[in-house]
Amino acid sequence: MADEKKIAAYICKGCGLGERLDVDQLKIIAEREGRVDMVREHDFLCSKAGVQLIQDDIDNEGVTNVAICACSRRAKTEAFNFENVAVTRGNLREGVIWARPDTDEARELTQEMAADYVRMACFESKFCSAPSPSGEQSRVDSVLIVGGGVTGMMAAIEIAKAGYKATIVEKAGALGGHLADAWKDIPSRSPYADPVDTGVVGMIAAIETDIRITVHLNSTVTRTSGAPGRFSADISTESGSTTTENFGAVVQASGYKDYDARQLPELGYGKTPDVVTQAELEKLAKEAAGGPIKRPSDGREVTSVAFVQCAGQRSDKPGHLPYCSGTCCLVSIKQAMYFKDSDSNIDTTVIHTDLRTPGAPGEDFYRSGQKKGVVFTKGTVHEVVAGSDAHSVRFKDLILNEDTEMQADLVVLATGQVPNSGPDMEQMAEDKMAAEEAGEEYVEVSVESILNLDYRQGTDMPQLVNGFTDSHFICFPYETRRTGIYTAGPVRRPMDSAQAREDGTGAAMKAIHALEDAAQGRAAHPRSGDLSFPQFRKEGCTQCKRCTVECPFGAIDEDEQRYPQFNEARCRRCGTCMGACPVRVISFENYSVDTVGQQIKNVEMPDEFDEKPRILVLACENDAYPALDMAARNGNHYSEFARVIPVRCLGSVNTIWITDALNSGYDGIVLMGCRKDDDYQCHFVRGSRLASIRMSKVDDTLSQLNLEPERVATHEVAITDVERAPQLINDMVETVAKVGMNPFKF
Amino acid sequence: MSTNTAMVEKYRNNFLKEVETNVEEGEWVKMCMQCGVCAGSCPLGNAWEHPPQEIFMMIRAGKREDVLTSDSMWMCTSCYSCIVRCPRELPITHIMHGLAHYAKRLGIQPKNNPTQWFSEVFWNNMMRKGRVNELRLGLSLYFRNGFLSGIRESLKNAGLGRNLMKAKRMSPMEFFGGHGVKDASGLQKIINKAQELEAARIERHGK
Q1: Within-domain flag for A530
Q2: B86: distance to nearest CA of chain A, Å?
Q3: A711 and A676 in one domain?
Q4: Are A411 and A265 within one domain?
Q5: Does B11 touch chain A (CB under 8 A)?
Q6: What residues pair up with A122 in beta bridges, in sequence order?
Q7: What is the ipTM of this complex?
Q8: A118-173 per-position pLDDT tens digit
Q9: Of A52, A120, A295, B27, which shows the fewest CB atoms inside 10 Å?
Q10: Which residue in the set B12, B31, B54 is minimally distant from A400, CB to CB?
Q11: Is the domain of A206 the same as that of A286?
Q12: Where are the beta strands (DSSP E) in A238-390?
């Protein structure tokens, strides 16, 4: 391959590069040390003329690899977008001249820094080739929607509107889910004053008349295999007949089930039929159809009703839900209005600890409830005692700070939403491992699977906390950890119908995006459009399975011979498999152990006694690298001894880079990745967590080399850390000054 | 009211409705969202047994006696900090005075509270001529505990009085009648009409 490549390096003199740097010297370095085939300079490389210069070389000189030594790879991406060639970037602007002060004293070392970045760009380019699609791709323009509640129906309607086909698989005998059982809904349009029609009937009618939407009722998905663009699903009916269909993408809108109120005997549930859940009150209201609501015990018209908020929720008691379901306060206000609207003399009291009314209708709807005379009392209910006539609600009034009680004909418990997310594969694996370690027998708790995926990593979507499916909650809420499968609605987080509609729409958009990307062999978010995909040298593989286990997106299965089987369309191109592979057989065309390793090796290493340490910075290209770019732009300088290499994700960092860097004389190594806990910010979900596990084991390497552990530091850096990120680099320089230079300089 | 009935009344809306009908701006009480900004804003807050937030909650909890016999709302100095700051725009100052007034109307206000005594003196003083007679108001304040203590109080403040007179801020002639509005009988008519309307309202809704 290598002899077919023709590498050209371009050095830009714009943006002050020409004034601050000795470009002639950089050209010589690219030529003699970088050993590229062609070197050119230009006064303004991203201008039309500059871009044309490069394009002409590609067209006329047969250049296949372009090394652009100008600004950061995050800048001018549209100008430097050349087709069918491998492009690498040497960051001379943000990475060198902006990161350093413009003084005569700084000039020499700034030039050294620039020279290294030119070397790095040239060598990275040598080991890259232009990515091309795998050929695995196919295009299927229909989307499988699992769940026919409001989220699923909305997704189907939106998908059909966009001209694609949708298939809804609903377990129950009718569409509509929980909302179909409700009498009215919380208003989603101004003036947010009164309960409104649910709209379920209209949605069902729209679905039934749309030829692009197919509905399977009383059915479940018994097997899902494949990848975006080529999913295959078995849809089985209750009676046992199964049909298999192909889909381009999947929306999982499996919704929630109501928290089991039987776990709340202290609140009177089960002791008298007059203690009901919100869902049960909807049924009573539906029976009343706008007339007076009658209570279940004796059919008498209700004259007073108490709503108990946070029943079995926001509580750390065993069996309770620790989280807030986020909808129950609005639902209670709505239900109190059912009573107030039929007769304003009915006393309605909502007992809450914190009234939470999120979303657009929130505060207005609350105010409307108050105007209608719904009384809100801040208190914690500890007991509901069933009486012969009225029932006593015993609570602590938190404003008046006293234990008190009130009488009510009917008590409504605001219980929460429990996601229908299927078995938690990761938790089960952990429990199993813990049981095995403890020598106990592992008892599997059987939870019905929703998707029955035949993926190596389990049958269902990974979960984050409290059973909700994992999505990048902070930045990309619709994304999940199974490419092309989008969870939407209350299975993702607790929500009301307006939010569920929005979620269904969002998931529909993502599903369409995914199937179109898959058709072209392009990566989905966040490396959207990337054509590279992991390739592996089978002959070197030891079948250790670390790649198949660690892939955050379940992209890698195993073939019959137990070798990893990559599903390109499921791959997000993070390189976590590449970082995991102990024998380094996994690579991308434009990102590999070599492309980074060669950059590390080809930095000029000054002598131990030169007092010029070298700090290797491996920075996540999503957060840490832009933070450093922005820091430089803001004039937050950092050490001239740093050499920053962007990585796709800290998860793609192979420990061989660390070992090699220490062996070749780097004095300190700083790894910058994203936050990794439950509130993770890693674009690839698990990458930074896996990296930190791997780096925790780097101490062994260091002690083998007889080096101080302080030389390697892993930090969580956010994109906003424009002051902290440079400081972390400078801190490492100080650390090196303390512990001394690395003796392994050759 | 027996304890049993009191229990039934708790957290029922009867007292809230009574307040809505009888108290000036009382229909606002239900709109309180219990944020406590009023309680935190009141400069005399530590002199109040129940800050406005608590008063509103007590009304909703049906604590009729506790609210109406409380001296809390009599402590209000009408600084309007609470009104300015209330995120729900409740006219809290007015509600406080409304509650105080309603309690007085029912005759269950705290009898020894000096504020309500002073309010009455102030009102009667002003109603004579339509203007406050400051000299007489001051003197009636000094002499409220009898003649001897009145003399003592007056002598204590004699210097202040002399300075006020020198600066022509107070005239000793005010003691004899004093100044008033141009049309005293017109003012009286307005007051009479207002009282008539109020009486009619009470007639309509009961006390």
Answers
A1: no
A2: 14
A3: yes
A4: yes
A5: yes
A6: none
A7: 0.83
A8: 999 999 999 999 988 777 778 899 999 999 999 999 999 999 999 999 999 999 99
A9: A52
A10: B54
A11: no
A12: 242-247, 249-252, 256-258, 275-277, 304-308, 347-352, 375-385
